[in-house]
Amino acid sequence: MNRDFLETLLMDRALNELPPETTRLLDAYLADHPELQPLDESIQETVAIGERAVHAELPTELPAFPRKRMPSRSLSAGWNTANLWMSVAASLLIGIGIGMSTMRWKDEPQQKHPGLMVSQVQPQPKSDGFESARAFWSSKTYIDRYQKIRKDRTQRNGNTKLQEQIQEYKKRELL
Q1: Which of 58, 71, 105, 122 is 20 to 30 A from 43 via CA?
Q2: How far apart are CA 168 and CA 164, in angstroms?
Q3: Does 99 map to a domain?
Q4: With contact defined as beta carbons under 8 Å apart, do 30 and 40 qualify?
């Protein structure tokens, strides 16, 4: 049997928490293993010491709750309400002060459109607004990007032979 499990069973038996069937099985196991008798006695002794400490005579009168011993600071309901409104007003003023300090104040007034002129009106082509998305997801975009990366790598490495092979491949593909 595992020692941790055995100690748990012995502790439960000492606290009278085991069912009678389990207690009989544990007693039979301890009878077969007399080397575990000192462990059983030490656990029973520890539990007995704990029970004596818990059941020691308690003082009959408990001390008063600390709030009752403190001097009373009873304020009228009017003072509590005034205190609440003053804290709200102070918070509001602090918020306004912070907001004004972060805003940019300028002395001169700004003109929205000082000399706006329309020179020529051209009709816009009709679009559904997804041209940039289609260009982003197109295979041509990925091929162009890949070729640019390869070109940059070959230029860094000085590998012109690879560039020549790519050019030949493109020529064969076009023919």
Answers
A1: 58
A2: 6
A3: no
A4: yes
